[in-house]
Write a structure and sequence with these properties.
four-stranded mixed sheet, alpha+beta, single chain, about 230 residues, 6 helices, Spore Coat Polysaccharide Biosynthesis Protein SpsA, Chain A, about 20% helix, 15 strands, three-stranded mixed sheet
């Protein structure tokens, strides 16, 4: 998901899409794509704001993976993003935020499930929603209503789902003009078994002051051995 402008990250996003903001010398989206499990053969990037920068940079192939693009002309939330890409989704697929940093090992564990969401235990949930699960580790809900600082299992915006997702109505959030992906998956989880996989680490980038610590996170976690690098 790489269509948004990222206004909180201004002025860094005044002349580039948020996923193309450099961290440790590379665009955020490069780190995300190269962290994908080896079995991922094709990447679909949903673009919008200054989309040409993304399409020019990655082209139609990146480190051995086919790249395709879908344009989101209206920003109607993360649930809507998946529906925009629906014509290209015919199998089980991962959905990731294009402006967060993930561990390759976490994404491999996530991809090993039929349906799943990735969460990370934090003492302070900050601006992020929390996942709830049953005693067997399956999702029961997701909420953004908890006060900041309450902590818990934070939803980190990484999921593995399949076309069953499209059998469920998108869940409106906020004033109803947007549709939430985690909220729709939560609705799906009332009938389907959606595993919650716990991450070891994750770095969300929301503000300019996040760039320097994000670079330190990359240096600590994303070594040459971690990232799948193949010849085109």
């Amino acid at each position: 998901m790489a269509a948004g402008r990222g206004r909180r990250l201004s002025p860094l996003t005044d002349d580039r899409p948020k996923p193309m903001v450099p961290v440790a010398g590379r665009p955020i989206l490069e780190w995300s794509i190269d962290a994908l499990p080896p079995e991922v053969e094709e990447v679909i990037i949903v673009v919008g704001y200054l989309k040409e920068q993304v399409t020019k940079h990655f082209g139609d192939r990146w480190h051995g993976r086919s790249i395709r693009y879908v344009i989101q002309t209206e920003l109607k939330g993360t649930g809507h993003v998946v529906h925009v890409a629906r014509p290209l989704l015919d199998r089980r697929f991962l959905v990731l935020n294009g402006d967060d940093l993930y561990l390759p090992s976490d994404l491999r564990r996530l991809a090993g499930n039929e349906l799943a969401a990735l969460g990370l235990h934090l003492k302070d949930n900050g601006r992020f929603g929390l996942l709830t699960l049953d005693d067997d580790g399956y999702m029961t809900g997701v909420s953004r209503d908890e006060p900041q600082g309450s902590g818990g299992l934070v939803n980190v915006g990484a999921y593995v789902i399949d076309r069953r997702f499209f059998d469920y109505d998108l869940v409106p959030i906020g004033d109803g003009s947007e549709f939430g992906l985690p909220h729709t998956i939560s609705s799906m989880a009332q009938k389907e078994r959606v595993r919650v996989t716990e991450a070891e680490s994750w770095f969300p980038i929301g503000y300019p002051q996040d760039i320097e610590p994000a670079a330190e996170w990359v240096k600590e976690h994303l070594t040459r051995e971690d990232i799948r690098q193949t010849d085109d």
